[in-house]
Amino acid sequence: MFPIWTASLPVVREETTVFFRLSILSCMRVVATVIPLLMEVEPITEYTMEPIPNTANVVFVDSGYHGQLEHAGELMVLSLHNGPDDRSQAKPITGDGFRDPYPLSEHEFLAARGSEIVTVTDDGGAWEVQFDPNWFYPDNGTGGKVRFEQLTDWTQRPEESVRYFSGTATYKTTFESKLKNTKSRVFLDLGVVKNVACVRLNGRDLGSVWTAPWRVEIGGALEAGANRLEIEVANLWPNRLIGDATLPIEKRRTVTNVRTYDTMASGTYDCTKCAERKKSGQSAAMLPSGLLGPVQIQEQ
């Protein structure tokens, strides 16, 4: 703004005087507009919601600072009938750091992350899960094969053989890829895994993940059209020990001198917390297990 004023000084004409007045007034209006924005610190509570094509749902950024230059939030799917104030049925499809979503379809979204525009794909479908049959007991006649309509913690399942399972289970599903930009880097983000996962896409081993961020690069294995995804997940041992503690000795398959997770009143080995729990008759706390998700394809 100042260089413009200086360049106009040598020309002494009425038009210049008018120009000065207009420039100064414009500058004042800009300053008057910018200062309140810089002073604004209260979260903006309005959300930008976009209808998802062919569904009764909407997608929006769950962020108190949505609409400001710097903010981050979680993309979520809500019922169009309930609106953003009723989040009881909200379905998160990403972690923090995304904004300004634009739905391309029911399971595919464009979103901003920092200065990048990325594609986010929600898993959206069911999974066939094969548990190791040797540790899947009491067997319900399925041989360890269970259908998950949505990803959930094993300890929250109704089947006792899943709830107390410790070992390895393989998740299988298929999905359609509409990737157009072959030069983009493409990742499979597993969300949260308890505790270790090995990923195979179209039969290709893409490695293992054991800590956050739970994701692997899949660009070299991703195919146009249908893709076969397998995720092998292993959890920890305590849940099976806790389950066996509820069974008669002759039906248990675990053998250990570890007494932390049983329900016996003796043999706590100076574990005060264990002793208090056992005296109360309560079972030990279960550990979250399995592929918790959400599973997404991220292009960047």
Distance between the termini: 38 Å
Compute the number of structural domains: 3
Quaternary structure of the protein: single chain
Count of alpha/pi helices: 5
- Strand tally is 18
Mean pLDDT: 76
The CATH H-level homologous superfamily of the largest domain: Galactose-binding domain-like
In N-to-C order, the SSE pattern is HHEEEEEEEEEHEEEEEEEHHEE
What is the radius of gyration?
28 Å
Strands of the biggest beta sheet: in what spatial order?
5-6-7-18-11-15
SSE topology sketch:
Blueprint: H1 2-8, H2 14-39, E1 49-51, E2 57-62, E3 74-79, E4 91-92, E5 99-103, E6 108-113, E7 116-122, E8 127-131, E9 145-148, H3 160-163, E10 168-177, E11 186-189, E12 193-194, E13 196-201, E14 204-209, E15 215-217, E16 225-234, H4 238-244, H5 272-280, E17 290-291, E18 296-299
Antiparallel strand pairs: 1-2, 2-3, 3-4, 5-6, 6-7, 7-18, 8-9, 8-10, 10-16, 11-15, 11-18, 12-17, 13-14, 13-16
